[in-house]
Every structure is written in C-alpha cells, then in structure tokens.
UniProtKB/TrEMBL annotation:
The chain crosses the membrane at residues 12-32, 52-71, 78-97, 109-130, 142-162, 168-186, 207-230, 250-270, 277-295, 301-322, 334-351, 363-387. GO terms for molecular function: transmembrane transporter activity. Residues 10-390 form the Major facilitator superfamily (MFS) profile domain. This is Predicted arabinose efflux permease, MFS family. InterPro entries: MFS, MFS_dom, MFS_Efflux_Transporters, MFS_trans_sf, Sugar_transporter_CS. The keyword Ligase does not apply. PANTHER family: CHLORAMPHENICOL EFFLUX PUMP RV0191, PURINE EFFLUX PUMP PBUE. GO terms for cellular component: plasma membrane. It comes from Paracoccus isoporae.
Length: 401
C-alpha cells in the first residue's frame, strides 16, 4: 500500500528540489584528479581542487541563516526559484571557465543557489506536513537526495573518464526541474502564522525550542565534519590502493548513496520505535563501522561495503536532525530554523578537509578513516547523554515524528 503522503504532489515537489542540494557539491567528486591534472602549472592546484567540493559549503553555511529569515519574511517560492536560477548558471560554469580560480569562484556562487533551495524546501516540508507524516517525508526526501546523488555521481564518473569538465553538465538538470517545481509547490497559507492552533498543528513550538535546535545543529555540523572526508578524500585513497579509474570512485560513492536512500526510508518508519535518541545513535554506530571498514579496505568490494555502512548511518542521522529541529520550532521561525540546520550541514562540509587533510598528510588515509570511526563512536555517546536530559515534547503520540 502506498503511503498517503506519496499521493500528495507537494511531497514529490520538495523531494525533487532536495535532489539538487545536500550532495550537490559531491557531484564532481570523480572528476577531481582529472581537474587537478588540467592545471599542472598552478602551484595551488592540489588545495584548490579539493576546495571545489567544499567551497560552496562555506557560502551556504554563511548565507543559509539569512536565507531562512528571508524565507520567513518573503515567503518560500521567491528564495526557492531564485536559488534554482543561480544553481543552474553557477553549476554549469565549470564547462567553460579557463582557470581553476574562476571555477572556484563559480562554486562559491553555487553555494548561494543551494542555500536558497535547501532553506526554502525544508521550510515547505514544515509547512505542508505535520506529525508522523513530516518525519516520514524527511526519510523519503533523503532517499530521493541519495538516489539522485547515486545517478549523478555514477554519471559523473563516466563523464569524467571522457573529460573532467563534463560532470559540470549535470547541474543543467535544474533547467527542466524549474517549471515542474513552479507547478508542484504553491506558497503556503501564511494565515497559519496568526492562527497556528488550527492551520498548523504544533505551530507554537515546544518549550525551550532554541536549545533543541542548537543541539541538532551542532550534531549535524560535527557529523558532516567527519562524514565529508568521503567525497573529499576517497578518490585519492582509491587511487593509492590501485583503483585509479574515476569510475571506481563513482561506484563506491554510488554504494554509499544507495544505502543512504534505503536507510532513510527505514529510519522514518522505525523512528517511532527508536525515538529521537535511538535513531541518530544507531546512525552514528553505523557510520563508525563504515569508516573502520573503509580504513581496512584494499580492494573495491570492501571499499563499497564500508561506504554502504556509512550511507546507512547517514540515512538514520540526517532526517532526525532536521525533523527534530522543525518539530520543535514555531511556525513563524521554521525558515530560520531550516536555515540554521542547513548552515550546520554545510559548515561541517567546509571544515572537513581542514580537519582531515592534516591527518592524511601525517599518518595516511587508513589512520584518518580510523580516527573518523572513533569520533562517530564518541558522538553517539555524547548525543545520547545530551538528549536524555531533554523531555521529548514533540515526540509523543499526538505529535510524533
């Protein structure tokens, strides 16, 4: 039997918008070695190439809270479709720009587009759906993100084998998506803000909601600091163990995204049983196991098994971070809250190579991934203890996630 929310065209609209966001930076991951080789005379090519993945994250981290305020003040559609336009123009610019610095500048502009899209679509989920439906949709959304990412990254792997510029063409998908979202995503009724009790159940937010949002945002940032070592370091690790073809990087990343898609749907279904503590803790333990396996990997099957576990862990964590924050927040602060959580995701992405590159340089890839495994194990304990002291006001049966 099909879930009722999947019969709602708005659900498909927000899922479609989400496919362009959280993993958008990683789309060009298989092309990184090739892009670096295109600029042999640039003394900073090694660093700048890695920044192509994380530079948009810095912009999103800075802009997303402000985009959230604009979403609350101007409505959801204007930031969403402005972001789509920027995403299209900036994302495809790598096809023709002639210097690594210029490509990096276009990636910074891409971050502006991602900030607008992701903040608006997350707020729309909070507006359109409530209670258990909101939690399940977050799971479906992450599944859509990772299925899209699987297709994008595998396609990028094949395109990168032809030319390292061709993966930038994938961002052109924003063009056909634009008119679809225009029809599927209407502006929510803002009268709900004045009468949250009737138009938007739970619109007033839970007591102490800023603290809950802060906990979720911090957990999300730390998660992505460690997790984003995968798209930024994995192609080089694979090359070191003899898997130099860009298609191998695409296949290993695809394994992670497929697993994340499946586990994201499962997490939405089991969340009422595991709760908002057990769900992310389960995710952290899976992430820890995946990083440990990847540290031992010397062949493609083991590397794919490791990233599959990593993807499974992410599928449990990410919907929880967003859902818990949105459920805690009042209606007229959902744009701001979605912006803050979005900012935390991308701040973690940007800081990831800053944290992982010194470890790689000093001890190598296996030691860096082993460290990531231990950090996720520690995060599982810290988050469990932290949330244990906060009453789950929005996790009861009347307003379950």
């Amino acid at each position: 039997m099909i879930d009722r929310i999947l019969r709602d065209s708005r659900a498909w609209g927000v899922m479609l918008a989400a496919t362009l966001t959280i993993m958008s930076n990683a789309t060009i991951t298989p092309a990184l070695p090739g892009i670096q080789a295109m600029f042999p005379d640039n003394p900073n090519a090694e660093l700048l190439t890695r920044l192509l993945i994380t530079a948009p994250s810095l912009v999103v981290a800075i802009i997303a809270p402000f985009a959230g305020v604009m979403v609350d003040r101007l409505g959801r559609r204007l930031p969403l479709f402005t972001g789509l336009g920027i995403y299209l123009l900036a994302g495809t610019a790598g096809l023709y720009l002639q210097s690594l610095e210029a490509i990096l500048a276009s990636r910074l502009a891409l971050g502006l587009g991602v900030a607008g899209i992701m903040t608006a679509q997350a707020a729309l989920i909070g507006d359109y759906f409530t209670g258990p439906e909101r939690g399940r949709l977050m799971g479906y959304q992450l599944a859509a993100v990772n299925l899209g990412g699987l297709i994008f990254v595998m396609t990028a792997g094949f395109l990168a084998a032809i030319s390292p510029r061709l993966p930038f063409l994938i961002y052109g998908l924003a063009l056909p998506i634009f008119p679809l979202l225009w029809r599927l995503l209407p502006e929510p009724d803002r009268s709900a803000e004045q009468n949250p009790g009737t138009a938007m159940p739970g619109g007033g937010g839970e007591p102490g909601w800023p603290v809950t949002v802060l906990i979720m945002a911090t957990a999300a940032a730390l998660t992505f600091v460690v997790f984003y070592a995968i798209p930024t370091q994995l192609p080089y690790h694979l090359a070191e163990i003899g898997l130099e073809d860009p298609r191998y990087a695409g296949e290993v990343m695809a394994s992670m995204m497929l697993a994340a898609a499946v586990s994201a749907v499962i997490s939405g279904l089991v969340r009422p049983l595991l709760g908002r503590i057990g769900t992310p803790v389960t995710g952290f333990l899976l992430l820890s196991g995946g990083f440990w396996i990847l540290a031992q990997a010397t062949a493609l099957p083991l590397a794919m098994a490791g990233t599959a576990l990593i993807g499974s862990g992410l599928g449990f964590c990410m919907p929880t971070f967003i859902t818990t924050a949105l459920n805690a927040a009042p209606f007229n602060r959902r744009g701001l809250v979605s912006g803050l959580v979005t900012s935390s995701f991308f701040l973690g992405q940007f800081l990831s190579p800053v944290a992982s590159q010194p470890l790689v340089a000093q001890w190598g890839y296996p030691a860096a991934f082993t460290t990531g495994s231990l950090l996720f194990l520690g995060l599982s304990v810290i988050l469990a203890v932290t949330l244990k002291h906060r009453q789950p006001h929005v996790d009861n049966t009347a307003r379950a996630q």
